[in-house]
Write a structure and sequence with these properties.
The complex is a heterodimer of chains A (about 170) and B (about 280).
Chain A (H helix, E strand, L loop, with lengths): L1 H18 L13 H12 L2 H18 L6 H19 L6 H24 L6 H30 L11
Helix pairs in contact in A: 1-2, 1-3, 2-3, 2-4, 2-5, 2-6, 3-4, 4-5, 5-6
Chain B lengths: L1 H5 L1 H20 L8 H32 L4 H28 L1 H14 L3 E8 L7 E4 L12 E7 L5 E12 L4 E5 L6 E6 L5 E6 L5 E5 L11 E4 L11 E10 L6 E7 L8 E5 L1 H7 L1
Antiparallel strand pairs in B: 1-2, 1-12, 2-5, 3-4, 3-12, 4-5, 6-7, 6-9, 7-8, 8-11, 9-10, 10-11
Classes of the chains: A mainly alpha (about 170), B alpha+beta (about 280).
């Protein structure tokens, strides 16, 4: 059941993100919904689900839009993995958990993206990009993540007590 | 075997990472066509996106209309007057055209032979803030090829409708294609100023404008100059309107003049575009 919800979530997010959301940009900057979904699912579930969701979201985005396949998949995969690891140690009910993890993930996403772009011989000035876009996007993503996380936690049946050793 | 069991998770993660890096390396090359998988995913998803993009575009237009609902009655009155006026003048023009059918045909022929334009709809934009790419609903089946130029009809100040540069096609699927727009940071376009024929190179900027430099530091360019593509390098078609200069800056330590250009096309509201196939352009030159 949860798997079905997650697949539906990924697909509908992708379609809405590429068609409807570009109309709702604020100061020309768009929040990265894919990243928010990956981090939120990873926090609520575990690192395994997080990394699989990250891989799927990234691959979908790469296949349809970018010429190079695998960059987004790579970054989302690791973001999902680490967010899942951090999420299992932090309180899931705390509002600050998704906020801070999304904040960190957004910075990590752009740093890694820039690193890949550097090795693939694209030339983009990172300092101006960081000042003009990343700072705003960090705040957007984090605020959206709070709501998405709260909404998803109602949908998922999260096992709170476990007797088995992990 | 116990080693594998102990580090199972880490081994899987590392394997996936290595595979992804290999895929990045393989797909980074300039590919001639899409792979099977990409084509399959694209063929399934793009029709759905087409529907949603249409719906969202209409919704946004509707919201925009609602804002102006107060002034509608006033506007309606004015427009009715205008229509009557225009109909009158239209009748006179039709009379004029009817008198000289061969003139009309010639004009239409000229219009049609220059480029044969193929219309297409935008059906999705790349998420995120790094690149400005989008996909359209025409592909291999409609005779679209990689490298074709994408334009949009725009109205200039003096009510003349011209081709405005949008971008070019980088990859083609069966019924969809990826377009890279001119405001993308990695697109470099050679231009010329229509007033003085001075040439230079521009590329995209992060804030959605274009910036570039002129080959000649002494070139005479001023704010408001209109820029067209020059066709140097053979990637973009010649003589297509790019935009207007909004800023000229000359730094003493640099040997070039830098300019900032406002593109003619509004990339945030792009919906319908035209494609110029490459073989026709080659035939023209």
């Amino acid at each position: 059941m949860n798997t079905f919800i997650i697949v539906l979530l990924i697909l509908s997010n992708f379609i809405l993100e590429t068609t409807l959301f570009p109309h709702f940009n604020v100061f020309r900057i768009l929040p990265n919904m894919g990243l928010v979904i990956v981090v939120s699912v990873a926090i609520l579930r575990d690192r395994k689900t997080g990394s699989i969701v990250g891989l799927t979201v990234g691959l979908l985005q790469d296949t349809i839009f970018s010429g190079v396949i695998g960059i987004n998949a790579f970054i989302y995969f690791f973001l999902g993995y680490f967010a899942g690891m951090a999420g299992s140690k932090l309180s899931r009910d705390n509002v600050l958990t998704p906020f801070i993890l999304t904040l960190g993930s957004t910075i990590a996403y752009h740093l890694f993206y820039n690193l890949f772009m550097f090795f693939l011989n694209y030339n983009i000035g990172f300092s101006t990009f960081f000042k003009e876009i990343v700072l705003m996007e960090m705040i957007y993503n984090s605020i959206i993540a709070i709501f998405i996380c709260r909404w998803l936690s109602k949908i998922f049946i999260v096992p709170t007590v476990r007797f088995r050793r992990r | 075997m116990s080693l594998f069991k102990k580090y199972r998770n880490r081994i899987i993660v590392t394997t996936v990472a290595i595979i992804l890096i290999i895929v990045i390396g393989l797909t980074n090359k300039d590919r001639a066509s899409l792979s099977m998988g990409e084509r399959f995913v694209g063929n399934i998803l793009t029709p759905v996106q087409k529907v949603f993009y249409g719906i969202s575009h209409r919704t946004i237009n509707l919201l925009g209309d609602l804002k102006h609902i107060g002034g509608l009655r006033e506007e309606n009155k004015k427009l009715k007057l205008k229509v009557a006026e225009l109909e009158d003048s239209n009748r006179r023009y039709e009379d004029l055209i009817g008198k000289s059918p061969h003139l009309k045909e010639e004009a239409e022929l000229l219009k049609n032979t220059l480029y044969s334009l193929k219309p297409a709809n935008v059906i999705g934009k790349e998420p995120g803030n790094w690149f400005d790419r989008f996909i359209i609903d025409k592909g291999l089946k409609d005779g679209i090829a990689k490298g074709d130029t994408v334009i949009q009809g725009i109205t200039k100040d003096d009510n003349v409708i011209e081709e405005g540069m949008v971008g070019r096609i980088i990859e083609v699927g069966d019924n969809w294609a990826k377009v890279i727009s001119i405001i993308d940071e990695n697109n470099k376009i050679s231009f010329k100023s229509i007033r003085t024929q001075d040439g230079g190179i521009i590329s995209g900027n992060i804030d959605g404008r274009l910036s570039g430099y002129l080959f000649d530091a002494k070139a005479d360019v001023i704010k408001g100059d209109k820029l067209f593509t020059s066709g140097l390098g053979g990637i973009f078609v010649k003589d297509i309107y790019i935009g207007e200069i909004v800023e000229v800056e000359k730094r003493d330590e640099q040997l070039m003049k830098n300019i900032i250009i406002e593109p003619a096309v509004d990339f945030k509201k792009i919906h319908r575009v035209f494609i110029i196939p490459n073989e026709i352009v080659e035939g023209l030159n």
